[in-house]
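Field log, afternoon session.

UNIT: design team B
ACTIVITY: writing a sequence onto a fixed backbone
BACKBONE:
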């Protein structure tokens, strides 16, 4: 799993000011209101218009898939035989603009071996001007799937190689993702695993865990949240909406926070393409 101690874009609305004289009666009435009420009214109109626009867009697009992307907690599913996906995301630290990372990941399942998904990720992490690039090949096998029970179990293995370190091999992760779907709109994910990593030249072995849920609010909108950590190491949570644009594209907006140390906060934006 990638460390995401990473910056957040500032939010807020810019102040609105009147630029010209009102000529119609409706404009005159608006202009006659106190300045504070004018601003409140305009903010409400903008909010209503934006909400209606989002609802309209969501009603015109259909659902793709959930799980994966920039989220750490994996699910028990793999791609259908003959299908692939490409994920790309950018994570930025809220309080340290020079700390961020970018990741490009791809995975496929061949028709000849329908139970095995293979892929790789390339991640570039930058902190205080220093950057590091990591390549991570991955295999994920589906061990058990019962559609009638809503249960999927898989096993995944990932190796990490740093391109600009003295020790190229940077570590490995093993994980057992488990997914249970008690309701059509709700999926619960649980991960249990083990990680091996080099930290400052020292080797560390830790147990890893994670829990999360995916809830389909609408046909084209899923809410996702997760909590994950390592034994004696990182602890964090992430959450956010996922919009399904058509059948093959997902767009994520994720907020996360570390639960140890300085409790760094980050914002991630990402997209997934399936083909």
């Amino acid at each position: 799993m990638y460390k995401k101690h990473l910056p957040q874009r500032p939010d807020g609305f810019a102040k609105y000011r009147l630029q010209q004289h009102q000529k119609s009666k409706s404009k005159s009435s608006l202009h006659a209101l106190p300045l504070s009420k004018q601003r409140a009214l305009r903010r409400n109109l903008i909010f209503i218009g934006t909400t209606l626009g989002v609802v309209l867009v969501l009603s015109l697009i259909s659902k793709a898939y959930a799980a994966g992307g920039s989220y750490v907690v994996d699910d028990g599913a793999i791609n259908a035989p003959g299908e692939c996906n490409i994920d790309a995301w950018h994570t930025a630290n809220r309080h340290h603009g020079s700390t961020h990372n970018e990741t490009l990941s791809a995975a496929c399942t061949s028709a000849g071996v329908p139970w095995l998904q293979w892929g790789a990720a390339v991640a570039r992490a930058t902190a205080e001007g220093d950057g590091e690039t990591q390549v991570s090949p991955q295999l994920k096998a589906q061990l058990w799937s019962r559609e009638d029970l809503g249960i999927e179990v898989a096993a995944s293995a990932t190796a990490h190689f740093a391109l600009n370190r003295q020790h190229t091999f940077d570590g490995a992760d093993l994980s057992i993702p488990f997914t249970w779907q008690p309701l059509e709109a709700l999926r619960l994910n649980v991960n249990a695993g083990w990680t091996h990593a080099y930290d400052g030249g020292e080797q560390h072995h830790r147990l890893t865990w994670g829990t999360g849920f995916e809830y389909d609010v609408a046909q084209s909108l899923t809410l996702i949240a997760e909590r994950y950590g390592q034994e004696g190491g990182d602890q964090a949570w992430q959450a956010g909406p996922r919009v399904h644009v058509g059948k093959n594209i997902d767009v994520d907006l994720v907020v996360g926070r570390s639960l140890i140390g300085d409790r760094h906060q980050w914002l991630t934006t990402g997209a997934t393409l399936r083909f």
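LOG NOTE: The CA atoms of residues 6 and 93 lie 3 Å apart.
NEXT ACTIVITY: expression trials, pending approval
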